[in-house]
Specification:
The complex is a heterodimer of chains A (about 525) and B (about 500). Chain A has helices at about 15-30, 35-60, 95-110, 120-140, 140-150, 155-165, 170-195, 200-210, 225-240, 250-255, 260-280, 285-310, 315-335, 340-370, 385-400, 405-420, 430, 440-465, 480-500, 505-524, and strands at about 70-80, 85-90. Chain A is mainly alpha-helical and about 525 residues long. Helices cover about 70% and strands about 5% of the residues of chain A. Chain A is built from 20 helices and two strands. In chain A, helix 12 (about 285-310) crosses helix 20 (about 505-524) and helix 16 runs parallel beside helix 19 (about 480-500). In chain A, strands 1-2 form a two-stranded antiparallel sheet. In chain A, a hairpin with a 4-residue loop joins strand 1 and strand 2. Chain A has a domain at about 290-524. Chain B has a domain at about 300-510. Helices cover about 75% and strands about 0% of the residues of chain B. Chain B has 20 helices and two strands. The longest helix of chain B is centred in the middle third of the chain and has 32 residues, at about 155-185. Classes of the chains: A mainly alpha (about 525), B mainly alpha (about 500).
Chain lengths: ~525, ~500
């Protein structure tokens, strides 16, 4: 059975080029003299721009969105003895995220201008991080996936730990410990799957899971697939981060420098959601079915709790960080609903949140660079000295809030509709009596509280920062600079474009989401 | 008569690596008397040439099976450990040559003792005979005792030697007692006779029984013997509950000696332990009786492994001295390697060999780093490393790679090693469920991350006004090479897998 579509027309080395271009860039940067920071920045910019061009070309050109299955695959044996292969490919789930990755890394380079103590190693680590992220999105072999997954940890540790805020060391090690704990669980699950089926290949594992082919033993009263499901779920949930594994995120965000926050919120969190869709749910769909309502509950807790905590923040960046927890809750809720709408909404939410939260962090970074603090209550009336900044910030935050016509609205609306349609937990008697109501209907209802609170904290924050009386100290703040606009503009344009033409991403995902739904519902 | 001579010559030719080392050791001792130089690198070079020659002979003898004088067995399994020992001893000699704090007195004896300990390990890992095993172990230990106290004016060094002698003597006694019990119930000292692989006792008392028979007749005696022998091995590999000596001795000994103890000597202990338990319990034709007993032994080893890694890691968390931290870390790694042995199957044994090979690269690298910095700053505390990261990147960046590898994060060789061990622990088992041990190993990796990253944090995340350390080119080259190999074998580990697999001729 050729699950990778390994025919010659479909084979391509493009993805490998895309993945390893940052590595080449890293070698180039390493060879440049450390004193010439300008050349280093240009080289890094160039080596994030080339992947962007390549990914854009793939997105609009090479990638055929009407075809189901993996495209542009490359496959060869890596460690033959253990059956480990280098196999990469993309489908509609990974292609948009791949594109998003290259956009955000490109945006992060000019945004790094104001990072204190900037040095050559910063850019080396940034490129190494990009290698890891791109690698995860293209991997179709669990071993390869894991290697890339872990390659991201060390650069991230250093980027937060060296160039971060006052408590950077604490935040960096907390991030590392949380993620490694999750990774270890993933590794154990992957090895269990390998021992059971003899393969690391994700498509093969999905096929075996679909056929109910796992024969692993039950332990402590839980079946093999249940164990695998929870181990994988926790590993990815830490990355999302889902409640109750979210506590590393606010620390990491607040301490990280602006461009790293952008990447963290924009891409790294999406790896968790992507991991669930690629490597957890389709492999053990029956266990997923069984626990879908738990995931829905966790998602709604994240939505409401994240929004509630964000409401109470006085630190601008911490507020945005908690808004990420809240927004990523929608991803979990949409997936758990097990409806086509919900799944599309969740997948789209990953993309739109990647854009809007990245924009929000850039916006916070702009004001932080001028005021050197982020206390929401200390600002006020900034709209007067910085009118252009005000306009751009409003777009970014309204996109995050989910205003109709902006990116966040479409994905959240899809998710909510999908969750409301969900039939998870419906009993036969209830259906017979015409009472079309179950756990997910309640959950959707509760989630709307989160939406209201989201509007509240965002509007309140905007009000405190931009409106009211102007603080004397901030009178001569310079308006947003061309460099800052250059970082922000592509994201804001995407926020609006996606709000009006969501098919711009949805169409790309449609076929793959349908395939995924077919696998997931088949098991039920 | 002629035939007998022929036999002896053949035996001698099989022993050529050992003979090379003995000759080298004697030459070093003699030339030291002739040259009478205090600061001679020539003696070290002789040692290195000897070790290189022995290693070449070992490589060319790869695949040879044979027995010399009925006592010393030549096989790939022993070859693996002998090669490991020569390579590790070679690095230790290089460390002595590079050590800035070494006072260079009695330098000839220093090399001689290192070589003697290596010879001891050669015999320890290359025999099925328990008597020769003990002799080899004692030779290695005696040399190590004097090495541990080599800085005889230093209080710490003297204390280390004293502790080492007391613990070593005690555990050797315990082990010999266990062996004598085993001899009492089986009537032989040859492991293959015990396992039933050899019908006739080559030494020739003619009263030998196999372990299966002994188990039937006096199970209590066998159990006691096994526990006592395991205790002896436990000292050598510094596993719980006999690991208490390790941190003090490692800390007090000169760093090249610490390196030798933590890498070569520990691997030697594992060689002997794996041969003992492998032949007696894991080999395919051990019989039903022994196979049933195997699971109990496996469970004991699993408990020892779990205790060792957890105690080692928890103690390492609180250390402020880099040397002591690495000492506890090496205790924890002994626990990791034991996981493979505890699985009591071929995959597990392979995994242990693989992990030891991985351990070689990353741990020698870490000790090289320690040697360099203690030479530069005169201290071994973490504090003295503050802010050094960006000031000596050719030394500190490799160290980050070693630490990440020791934690077990890809794409480093330490990760692939841990992968194999997890594989072994979770693999198909007949009546031995070690899934919990896999989880324990995983959690221990997370614990260890904290203290390994503390070194990284002090190096890179904190600042100091200390001047840039004086560079040492050979050490930088060595560390970069080790770091490269750590990454290379992490990505392309087929050669190490093949090497580990070839060592499994032990079990056929």
């Amino acid at each position: 059975m050729d699950l990778l579509n390994l025919n010659p027309e479909n084979a391509s080395t493009l993805l490998s080029w895309l993945t390893f271009l940052p590595l080449i860039g890293m070698c180039v940067v390493l060879m440049l003299p450390a004193s010439n920071l300008r050349a280093i920045k240009i080289a890094t910019g160039l080596f994030t721009f080339i992947p962007l061009v390549l990914a854009t070309q793939m997105y609009f050109g090479t990638f055929d969105k009407t075809v189901s299955g993996y495209q542009m695959v490359q496959h060869f044996e890596w460690i033959k003895v253990l059956g480990i292969n280098y196999s990469v490919g993309v489908d509609g789930l990974s292609m948009p995220l791949l594109w998003l990755t290259t956009i955000l890394f490109f945006v992060a380079v000019p945004a790094s201008e104001t990072v204190p103590r900037l040095s050559k190693s910063y850019f080396v680590l940034l490129l190494l991080l990009e290698l890891g992220v791109l690698g995860v999105f293209v991997s179709l072999d669990f071993f390869l996936f894991y290697v890339y997954w872990e390659v991201m940890l060390l650069p991230m540790y250093f980027l937060i730990g060296i160039w971060g805020g006052p408590q950077r060391e604490y935040a960096a090690i907390k991030f590392f410990l949380y993620t490694l704990a999750g990774s270890v669980l993933m590794l154990i699950a992957v090895i269990a799957l390998r021992l059971d089926t003899g393969t690391f290949s994700i498509p093969e594992l999905v096929a075996i899971g679909k056929a109910g082919g796992f024969t692993g033993p039950a332990l402590l009263g839980m079946s093999f697939t249940t164990w695998v499901f929870w181990f994988l779920f926790i590993a990815f949930a830490i990355k999302i981060p889902a409640f109750p594994f979210h506590t590393w995120l606010p620390d990491a965000h607040v301490q990280a420098p602006t461009p790293i926050s952008v990447i963290l919120a924009g891409i790294l969190l999406k790896l968790g959601g992507y991991g669930l869709l690629r490597g957890c749910f389709p492999i053990v769909p029956d266990a997923f079915h069984h626990f879908a309502y738990v995931l829905g509950v966790l998602g709604v807790i994240a939505i409401v709790y994240g929004a509630y905590v964000a409401l109470g923040q006085t630190d601008f960046k911490k507020m945005v960080a908690y808004s990420s927890v809240s927004h990523m809750g929608f991803v979990l809720l949409g997936m758990a609903a097990l409806t086509e709408w919900g799944m599309n909404g969740a997948a789209l939410q990953m993309f739109t949140h990647g854009i809007s939260s990245a924009a929000c962090f850039l916006v916070v970074g702009v004001v932080y660079d001028r005021a050197h603090h982020r206390d929401l209550n200390a600002f006020g009336g900034l709209a007067q000295p910085m009118p252009r900044y005000w306009a751009l910030a409003t777009i970014a935050f309204f996109a995050s809030l989910g205003l109709p016509g902006m990116a966040g609205f479409v994905s959240e609306a899809l998710t909510m509709v999908g969750a409301f349609q969900s039939q998870v937990g419906w009993t036969d008697e209830a259906i017979a009596s015409g009472w079309m109501w179950g756990p997910f209907q309640w959950l959707t209802l509760i989630a709307t509280i989160g939406i209201v609170m989201t509007a509240a904290y965002i509007l309140w924050a905007l009000q405190r920062v931009f409106l009211g009386t102007l603080n004397e100290k901030y009178q001569d703040f310079k308006d947003i600079s061309a460099r800052e606009v250059f970082s922000l503009a592509p994201l804001l344009i995407l926020c609006i474009v996606l709000g009006i033409f969501p098919w711009f991403v949805l169409d790309w995902m449609e076929v793959s989401v349908a395939d995924l739904m077919q696998i997931l519902t088949f098991a039920g | 008569m002629f035939a007998l001579q022929d036999l002896h010559l053949q035996g001698l030719s099989l022993l050529s690596p050992e003979l090379t080392l003995v000759t080298t050791a004697l030459v070093v001792l003699m030339m030291d008397l002739i040259w009478k130089e205090r600061d001679s690198w020539r003696l070290g070079a002789i040692g290195l040439v000897g070790l290189g020659a022995a290693a070449l002979q070992l490589v060319s003898a790869h695949g040879t099976q044979g027995t010399a004088f009925g006592l010393v067995s030549i096989d790939n399994f022993g070859g693996f450990f002998k090669l490991f020992t020569s390579a590790a001893t070679g690095v230790c000699i290089v460390f002595v040559m590079l050590d800035r704090r070494e006072r260079r007195h009695r330098i000839g004896e220093y090399y001689f003792l290192l070589l003697s300990a290596a010879i001891g390990i050669f015999f320890m890992v290359g025999t099925y005979n328990l008597l020769l095993l003990v002799l080899g172990l004692e030779l290695a230990s005696l040399a190590s005792y004097s090495l541990a106290g080599f800085h005889k004016g230093e209080k710490r060094s003297a204390e280390a030697a004293m502790k080492y002698v007391v613990f070593g003597g005690l555990s050797a006694g315990v082990m010999v007692f266990g062996i004598s019990l085993l001899y009492a119930v089986t009537g032989t000292l040859d492991m293959r006779v015990m396992s039933g692989a050899l019908a006739i006792d080559p030494v020739g008392e003619g009263v030998a029984r196999s372990l299966a028979v002994a188990l039937e007749q006096s199970p209590g005696m066998v159990a006691l013997a096994m526990i006592l022998i395991l205790g002896g091995f436990s000292f050598k590999i510094s596993s719980a509950p006999f690991h208490f000596w390790a941190p003090d001795v490692y800390e007090g000994s000169p760093t090249p000696v610490t390196t030798f103890l933590a890498v070569a000597s520990k691997a030697g202990g594992f060689g002997a332990l794996m041969r003992f338990f492998g032949v007696l319990f894991v080999a395919p034709d051990v019989g039903e009786m022994v196979a049933a007993y195997r699971n109990e032994i496996g469970m004991v080893l699993a408990l020892v492994a779990a205790a060792t890694m957890t105690l080692g890691n928890l103690a390492a968390l609180r250390q402020t001295s880099l040397k002591r931290m690495l000492a506890y870390s090496s205790v924890a790694h002994a626990g990791y390697v034991l996981v493979g042995v505890a699985a009591m199957n071929q995959a597990g044994m392979e995994a242990s060999l693989f992990y030891l090979a991985a351990y070689y690269f990353m741990n020698l690298g870490a000790f090289g780093f320690l040697l360099y910095f203690s030479g530069v700053t005169g201290r071994e505390t973490l504090e003295s490393l503050r802010g050094m990261g960006p000031k000596a990147p050719m030394i500190t960046v490799p160290m980050v790679i070693f630490l990440v590898s020791l934690t077990g994060i890809p794409p480093m060789v330490g990760f692939t090693g841990k992968l194999q061990l997890l594989y072994a622990a979770m693999g198909p088992a007949e009546g031995l469920q070690l899934g919990w041990l896999a989880v324990c190993l995983g959690l221990n990796s997370v614990i260890s991350l904290y203290y390994y990253m503390r070194v990284v944090r002090v190096l890179f995340l904190e600042d100091s006004d200390e001047p840039r350390p004086e560079p040492q080119v050979p050490m930088a080259v060595f560390l970069c090479l080790m770091a490269f190999l750590t990454v290379w074998f992490g990505l392309f580990f087929t050669p190490l897998l093949d090497l580990a697999r070839s060592g499994m001729d032990l079990l056929t």
